[in-house]
């Protein structure tokens, strides 16, 4: 099922994925309804452990709560130490795609294979200071390569354009992998992301900081498509 989801996202690219980090956790049902009304095609869920990154968010129960609320693909971004110890629990909670950070594991390729063996799409992320070289050997195992345009850990940070060069480098190395960008993506930066070749655009504050999600997603989508 998750492989089908990936094919759908590839077909629909560029696709905006709302990052729920800044949503109203007191009313998840309403937040999902508002995002569905805005036409979003997948949700991006940020899991932080306070160790790999200096911030904590949520774990499997919140992923499971979103799973109960929607059939949209759930793209789970693990910003945690030893993610390999938890991937089964995230799959059981309802994740469709699980992305691990290359900086957090010893053997990226083997962790991606483990994610696949659970039936999930497998993604690998790198922070702005981590070179693409760090994931070259693992790329053939990845469905998705996430280029962080901020240091993982917080929403609302400024966009780091180093991610754009890395998107181009990943595309040169691998024509099949879906390329996602995450951090500081907004109306001013989204065009540069799709122009560079990003397929999936994670957006937090530029949606959840706006009163009207429908207008925010529509304007972001127009800017993304115009530059792609
Ligand atoms: O993974 C992360 C942060 O580490 C993101 O998914 C952010 O939550 C995106 O938020 P904005 O930068 O768009 O506000
Ligand atoms: Co994220």
UniProtKB/TrEMBL annotation:
Q: Which residues bind a divalent metal cation?
A: 44, 46, 77, 182
> Is Zinc found in the keyword set?
yes
Q: Which UniProt keywords apply?
A: Carbohydrate metabolism, Cobalt, Isomerase, Manganese, Metal-binding, Zinc
List, separated by semicolons, the cofactors it needs: a divalent metal cation; Fe(2+); Mn(2+); Co(2+)
**InterPro entries xref list:** Aldolase_TIM, Ribul_P_3_epim, Ribul_P_3_epim-like, RibuloseP-bd_barrel
Keyword set includes Transferase? no
Q: Output one GO BP term.
A: pentose catabolic process
Q: What does this protein do?
A: Catalyzes the reversible epimerization of D-ribulose 5-phosphate to D-xylulose 5-phosphate.
HAMAP family to which the protein is assigned, alphabetical: RPE
Its family remark reads:
Belongs to the ribulose-phosphate 3-epimerase family.
Q: What is this protein called?
A: Ribulose-phosphate 3-epimerase
The organism named in the record is Blastopirellula retiformator
Q: Which gene encodes it?
A: rpe_2
């Amino acid at each position: 099922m998750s492989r089908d989801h990936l094919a759908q996202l590839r077909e629909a690219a560029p696709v905006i994925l709302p990052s729920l980090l800044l949503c109203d956790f007191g009313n998840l049902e309403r937040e999902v309804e508002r995002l569905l009304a805005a036409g979003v095609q997948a949700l991006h869920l940020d899991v932080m452990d306070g160790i790999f990154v200096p911030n904590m968010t949520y774990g499997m129960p919140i992923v499971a709560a979103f799973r109960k609320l929607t059939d949209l693909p759930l793209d789970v971004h693990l910003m945690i130490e030893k993610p390999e110890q938890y991937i089964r629990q995230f799959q059981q909670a309802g994740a469709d795609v699980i992305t691990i950070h290359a900086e957090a594991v010893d053997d990226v390729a083997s962790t991606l294979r483990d994610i696949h063996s659970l039936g999930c799409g497998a993604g690998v992320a790198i922070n702005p200071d981590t070179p693409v070289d760090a994931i070259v050997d693992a790329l053939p195992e990845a469905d998705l390569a996430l280029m962080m345009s901020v240091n993982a850990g917080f929403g609302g940070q400024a966009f780091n354009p180093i991610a754009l060069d890395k998107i181009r480098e990943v595309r040169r190395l691998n024509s099949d992998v879906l390329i996602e960008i995450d951090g500081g993506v907004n109306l001013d930066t989204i065009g540069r992301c799709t122009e560079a070749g990003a397929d999936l655009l994670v957006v937090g504050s530029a949606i959840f900081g706006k009163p009207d999600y429908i207008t925010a997603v529509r304007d972001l989508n127009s800017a993304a498509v115009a530059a792609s």
